[in-house]
Amino acid sequence: MKKKIQILYIVILTSASVSFAQAKKTVWSEMKTFHSFMSSTFHPAEEGNLAPLRAKADSLLITAKLWQASPIDESFKPKETNATLKKLVKQCGTINNAVKKNASDKKLTLLITQAHDIFHTIVGECRKVEEDMPK
Predict the structure, then answer these.
(1) Number of structural domains, the chain?
(2) Quick one: CA dihedral 40, 42, 45, 46, positive or negative?
(3) In a domain, 12, yes or no
(4) Would you tell me which of 73, 81, 120, 132 could form a disulfide with 126, CB atoms 3.0–4.6 Å apart?
(5) Full-prediction pTM beyond 0.85?
(6) Residue 50: burial class (beta carbons within 10 Å; 0-12, 13-18, 19+)
(7) Using one digit for the tens of pLDDT, what is the confidence trace for 75-102?
(8) Structural domain containing residue 56
(9) Mean pLDDT of all residues in 51-64
């Protein structure tokens, strides 16, 4: 009986700490939305399929602008994130214009790769390290 209580106690503590960790982890919804468009255009482009990018270039730009206009998540460095989001929006605008002008697959692949790199700068280098996070 005592062993069952100890196991139950451990299970409760473990699930409580997992729930707390999940609650503490924030999701920047605008970033998540942009990421869905980025992944659905970039990954096919990597394999030579530019049709998704041609079809979704305007949505990629719109979601980049919406992300830029949203409040910066507290787990990101504001100054760096603002500057890099500005670059991302500009790059997505360049992609959208290139698609409208029927640019070559080679040109579009280069442009979406650059946008992808900018995106990863935001989600990587613009994040605060744990000691910079508010307590």
Answers:
(1) 1
(2) negative
(3) no
(4) 81
(5) no
(6) buried
(7) 999 999 999 999 999 999 999 999 999 9
(8) 27-128
(9) 98
